[in-house]
UniProtKB/TrEMBL annotation, chain A:
Keyword Ligase: no
Protein name: ABC transporter permease
Bilayer topology annotation: Multi-pass membrane protein
Provenance organism: Streptomyces albiflavescens
Cross-referenced InterPro entries: BP-dep_ABC_trans_perm, MetI-like, MetI-like_sf
Automatic annotation (TrEMBL), chain B:
Keywords assigned by UniProt, alphabetized: ATP-binding, Nucleotide-binding, Transport
Alphabetized PANTHER family for the sequence: MALTODEXTRIN IMPORT ATP-BINDING PROTEIN MSMX, OSMOPROTECTIVE COMPOUNDS UPTAKE ATP-BINDING PROTEIN GGTA
Pfam families listed in its UniProt record: ABC_tran, TOBE_2
Protein name in UniProt: Sugar ABC transporter ATP-binding protein
Record organism: Streptomyces albiflavescens
Any one GO molecular-function label of the UniProt entry: ATP hydrolysis activity
Any one annotated GO CC term: ATP-binding cassette (ABC) transporter complex, substrate-binding subunit-containing
Nucleotide-binding found in the keyword field: yes
InterPro entries noted in UniProt: AAA+_ATPase, ABC_transporter-like_ATP-bd, ABC_transpr_MalK/UgpC-like, Mo/tungstate-bd_C_term_dom, NA-bd_OB-fold, P-loop_NTPase, Transp-assoc_OB_typ2
Residue ranges occupied by any ABC transporter domain in the UniProt entry: 3-235
Length: 286, 384
């Protein structure tokens, strides 16, 4: 009986082996996608003398993590980690402060040159960073911004600001302007209408885009590589330091890389709830 | 507060929403703006509210030009057709929103009393704790109306505030709306596409079409002296009958059907029919004669007519029972006319039964024939 009803649930004409095929394909892709992570994890748990053993058995040890987080080997990894946090969070925060009003304005009003302005902003995203990196290096040296937090937060605006402005613009555009108009007639000023009505309604969007921007800022490699040396250097570049020296320490690099995955992962997990809502928010018309 | 729009033009890209609109709403008046969708009703309201800036022309409130005056400084309250409720707040918070704004702030306790009273009035007391997302459209519409009534305002701008209520509720709300003290004393500009609503509510009615006011007047003026055939068609269900014909030498009307014309004078049967209308139009003009279904009467067998009323002879095409009345569609030559008759007079009618219809001459309306570029305007006659 149950068997029969299960069969009848299937769409007519569909073949059961298609489902199996899809499952197998997904599992294969899953293995393919996660293999590098698993390989890194194994590498980071190997003791230094068994690093290059080709067979699978080894004695797991947390030595690599201890070394990396203990700042031994003369590489201040914890500092890089903190730098990354400060620089990425700073960049996202600044982009939100500047970008949210910009996104709102461009969604609500067309003014002379508004589309050109928006396109210019977008072009920062698709122009390769390498095209501007040398002039930026010279400028930063002269302005005293080289290897500083301020300099890094500033240059990362090229990464985070276009993202935040463009995504938030579509969130604001999805909101009917009548909500703010109602607020104006309720006796609120335009500023209050923005803060009390528009902003709370795009919160899911802010959460989603902040996470994305944070990940992009955190993962950025070229800017810290060229524009920092030690004080403001971030994990992406810092983790590579373990590869230098007389002998590449792959286990330490792997441990450093895995540690540096933690903040974006934690952030993603905490705002996951908003993420799902955020992605479907514009689709549902109340 | 009096509201005046003078020569207001508003375009969105290539579409013209308001095309030199002229409108005057007097202090304390309940003014209904009636028109089909896309006629510019909502744009008119938003222009008055200051949410849209006219391309040219001015909006005056109490005689003062409002150019450059922000919406929150105009002292008007508006109810949006889309409700525009704040979806992230509860029904109570939506109602409280105006009373928490810097402009209309009330102490919390006072605000609570005021909101309670309005909620009671609109029958939404039980909904106040709910997020507006959980409410039905009818409930949302009442919250939106409540948000307008809860605050002091010099004028109410209401955009189809009853359109999403079910028929029964709409009727009772219509009656209640006019009974609300605030509405009675405050200038109200009310937008609707429903002519019944406009007739029921409006002290005066303005008919808007393609961004212009076609006619303003009391319900009697709109009903008995419609500006053109479109206005005549907009009011009254079933719709007004419009029969084509021409003006005769004597200023009368001759139906277009020629020999087989159903019109006759007195009790005589069909033939060449002339209706003496005293029309102010030159002979030979193509015209439409209009008569409302409720102004046509079935002539009962055996009763003589008084000889003055024109009689139309035709055959029954179809009948439809509307509760206590019956809508009878009668074939007159090549035309169909409908009339509404008491049920007792019409129940025995079957298709193809011959019938005779009478109409009072003063209930006849005369229009120019419709032209592609504009509907036919009404022509003055001496019979009314």
């Amino acid at each position: 009986m149950t068997r029969k009803s299960r069969l009848s649930e299937r769409e007519p004409g569909s073949k059961p082996w298609l489902g199996w095929l899809a499952d197998t394909a997904l599992i294969l892709y899953f293995v393919f996608a996660l293999f590098p992570v698993a390989w890194m994890l194994i590498l980071s748990l190997k003791p230094a003398d068994q690093l290059f053993s080709t067979y699978f058995s080894f004695t797991p040890t947390l030595d690599s993590y201890r070394t990396v987080l203990g700042d031994s080997e003369g590489i201040p990894f914890v500092r890089f980690f903190v730098n990354s946090l400060v620089v990425s969070l700073g960049a996202v925060a600044l982009s939100l402060v500047v970008g949210l009003p910009a996104a709102y304005a461009s969604a609500r009003w067309r003014f002379k040159g508004s589309e050109n302005l928006m396109f210019t902003l977008l072009s920062f995203r698709f122009a390769p960073e390498l095209t501007v990196i040398i002039p930026l290096f010279v400028l930063y040296q002269k302005l005293g911004l080289f290897d500083t937090y301020v300099g890094m937060v500033w240059v990362l605006q090229l990464v985070t600001l276009p993202l935040i402005v463009w995504i938030m613009r579509s969130y604001f555009a999805d909101l009917t302007p009548e909500l703010e108009q109602a607020a104006l007639l309720d006796g609120y000023t335009r500023k209050q209408a923005f803060f009390r009505v528009a902003l709370p309604l795009v919160k899911p969007g802010i959460a989603a885009v902040s996470l994305l921007a944070f990940i992009f800022a955190w993962n950025n490699f070229v800017f810290p590589l060229i524009l920092t040396s030690s004080r403001a250097q971030t994990v992406t570049v810092g983790a590579l330091s373990f590869l230098g020296g007389d002998r590449p320490k792959y286990n330490l690099t792997a441990a450093a890389a895995l540690v540096s995955v933690v903040p974006p992962l934690l952030l993603a997990l905490t705002i996951q709830r908003y993420l799902v809502r955020g992605l479907s928010f514009g689709a549902v018309k109340s | 507060m009096s509201i005046a729009l003078r020569g207001v033009r508003k375009t969105y890209g290539r579409t013209t929403a308001l095309d030199g609109l002229e409108l005057e709403v007097h202090e304390g008046e309940f003014f209904c703006l009636l028109g089909p969708s896309g006629a510019g009703k909502t744009t008119t309201l938003k222009t008055v509210a200051g949410l849209e800036q006219p391309d040219s022309g001015t909006v005056e409130l109490d005689g003062t030009d409002m150019t450059g005056v922000e919406p929150y400084d105009r002292g008007v309250a508006m109810c949006f057709e889309s409700y525009a409720l704040y979806p992230h707040r509860s029904a109570y918070d939506n109602l409280a929103s105006p009373l928490r704004s810097p402009r209309h702030r009330l102490p919390a306790a006072e605000a609570r009393d005021r909101i309670g009273a309005i909620a009671e009035l609109l029958g939404i007391s039980g909904l106040l704790d709910r997020p507006v997302g959980q409410l039905s459209n009818g409930q949302r519409q009442r919250i939106a109306l409540g948000r307008v009534l809860v605050r002091p305002a010099r004028a109410f701008l209401l955009d189809e505030p009853l359109s999403h209520l079910d028929a029964k509720l709409r009727q009772s709300m219509r009656a209640e709306l006019k009974a609300i003290g605030a509405v009675q004393h405050t200038t109200t500009l009310y937008v609707t596409h429903d002519s019944v609503e406009a007739l029921a509510l409006g002290d005066r009615i303005g008919v808007i079409r393609d961004g212009r006011i076609v006619q303003t007047g009391t319900r009697e003026e709109i009903w008995y002296r419609p500006y053109d055939t479109e206005v005549a068609r907009a009011f009254g269900r079933p719709r007004i009958n419009l029969l084509p014909g021409t003006i005769t030498e004597g200023g009368g009307f001759r139906s277009a059907d020629g020999g087989g014309a159903p019109w006759s004078r007195g009790a005589k049967t069909s033939g060449e029919v002339e209706l003496p209308l005293g029309a102010e139009a030159s002979p030979g003009t193509d015209v439409l004669v209009g008569v409302r279904p409720r102004d046509l009467a079935l002539e009962r067998e055996g009763h003589g007519t008084d000889g003055r009323r024109p009689v139309l002879t035709g055959t029954v095409y179809v009948t439809e029972v509307l509760g206590r009345a019956v809508e009878v569609t009668v074939r007159l030559g090549g035309q169909h006319v409908s009339l509404v008759a008491p049920r007792a007079e019409a129940t025995h009618l079957r298709p193809d039964d011959p019938v005779r219809l009478t109409v009072r001459p003063e209930n006849l309306l005369l229009f120019e024939a419709d032209r592609p570029e504009r509907p036919g305007r009404r022509i003055e006659t001496s019979t009314r």
